[in-house]
Amino acid sequence: MRIFALVKRIIQQMLRDKRTLALLFIAPLFILTLMYFLFNGETTDPKLGVVNLDNQLIEELEAVDIKLKKYDKANASLIKKDDLDGLLKKEGDVYDLTLENSNPSIANELKIKIGQAASSFIQNELVDGQKDLIDSQVDLVDSIKKILSSLPPEVLSNTNAIDLDKLDSFDSDKLENAKSELDEINNNEDIETTYVYGSKDTELFDVLSPLLIGFFVFFFVFLISGIGLLKERTSGTLERLLSTPIHRVEIVTAYLIGFGLFAILQTVIVVFYSINVLDIIIVGSIWNVLLINLLLALVALSLGTLLSTFAASEFQMVQFIPIAIVPQIFFSGIFPFEQMAEWLHNLAYIMPLYYGADALKSVMYKGATLGEIKFNLAILSIFAISFIILNIFALRRYRKL
User: Fold this and answer.
1) DSSP conformational letter for 396
2) Which pLDDT band holds residue 182 (cuts at 50, 70, 90)?
3) Spatial separation of the C-alpha atoms in residues 240 and 268, rounded to whole Å
4) Which of 55, 118, 183, 200 has the most CB atoms less than 10 A away?
5) Greatest CA span in the chain, whole angstroms?
């Protein structure tokens, strides 16, 4: 009964705090929506100046959505003057590319597109060269046949210079078929492309959205629960509770249930809003998504209440964010884990968000089953249990004897 009385008081206190409710329920939806439009916005085609390029290469560059501006003569100063992203020149047989590079992502995109266009251009040149070679062979044989047909029969019967049987067996139709095969090789539009995960319409936000959902659930639950318990302590309520016969286990349980109900509600709202309003891809089971986020919320809740016992004010509680929350962003998958230094990999294994984000991405984007993410769920459960136990011991310092 004492636990339920505490839970009821926590719920009533939360319901009276409208700003906290807005931060818990509205802020994650607003930020997710903002990031959805940021990541799914229309990309701007890079602008490239060109000098002395072949018309075929120019066509290939335009085909990969590069805006071109042609010059008879140009130098690097034109990049600043005409607001170009790059300048591609051909001097003899040498190509020279100069990039503006104030935005490395645009510069890299431009290099990739130029590489695609150049590859297609070279392939076309090789195919055209082979076709020209076939045409020259056909013309040569036809010319030889005409010359031989004009010679007197006695001359042909007395010569051993030319094997007439082999010449007559020359099949120009085979060469024409070879030209057709070259055309088919050059035309890659008929190649059927399949994707292990996602599709050709997959956007960057589709890959990042599971990570963002997990992070926002984790962050806001951590912040609200930590500050909520801190208020209880600074107002003297917690010390009065600890001076009564109520056990520390009951207090921790009550706070976990009270804040946990709001965490569950927040998780359900964020997940269903992301899927139904933002149309985020979910391949696996939505129940698995909810389970992962609830475990993340429980970890955040227990971690927030634990750290709040070491803060003397709300400002000090906020100071824990760069220490306890920000480092976890780096290991959540938003930044490529494989590109990090090897010694940093070990840090990821002590970050709860690393396991939560990996499980969410596996379920939502790759369609993983509950059995395939059981390791991540087990680690999150261990984190939650460990923080809860530490909470019980941390409250000893506030019990009045």
Assistant:
1) G
2) very low
3) 34
4) 118
5) 131
What share of the chain has pLDDT > 70, as a percent? 74
3-state secondary structure at position 369: coil
Instruction: Enter the tokens of residue 375.
Output: 């390791």
Render pLDDT for 126-139 as a digit per residue (tens, 0 to 9): 555 555 555 565 56
- In this predicted model, what pLDDT tens digit does every residue of 209-237 receive, in sequence order? 888 888 888 888 888 888 877 777 777 76
Please tell me the distance from the alpha carbon of residue 89 to that of residue 75, in angstroms, as a whole number: 9
> At residue 398, does pLDDT exceed 70?
no
Residue corresponding to tokens 């090897």: 342
Work out the mean pLDDT of the chain and round it to a whole number.
76
For residue 372, count CB atoms less than 10 angstroms from its CB and return exposed for 0-12, middle for 13-18, buried for 19 or more. middle
The Cβ-side half-sphere exposure at 10, using a 13 Å CA radius, reads 27
Q: Which two tokens stand for residue 306?
A: 């634990």
pLDDT at 335: 76
The pTM of this model reads 0.69
283 close to 366: Cβ distance less than 8 angstroms: yes
pLDDT single digits (tens) 260-272:
888 888 888 988 8
Q: Nearest Cα to 356, choosing from 324, 383, 389, 394?
A: 383
**What number of other Cβ atoms are within 10 A of residue 28's Cβ?**
24
Extended strands (E) in 39-182? 47-51, 67-71, 86-91, 94-99
- Order of strands, sheet of 94-99, starting from the edge strand that comes earlier in the sequence: 67-71, 47-51, 86-91, 94-99
Q: Which residues are within 8 A (CB) of 333 and not within 5 positions of it... i.e. 6 or more apart?
A: 211, 354, 357, 358, 361
Pairing of strands 86-91, 94-99: antiparallel
User: 216 with 32: CB under 8 angstroms?
Assistant: yes
In this structure, the dihedral spanned by the alpha carbons of residues 11, 15, 18 and 23, taken in order and rounded to 10 degrees, is: 40
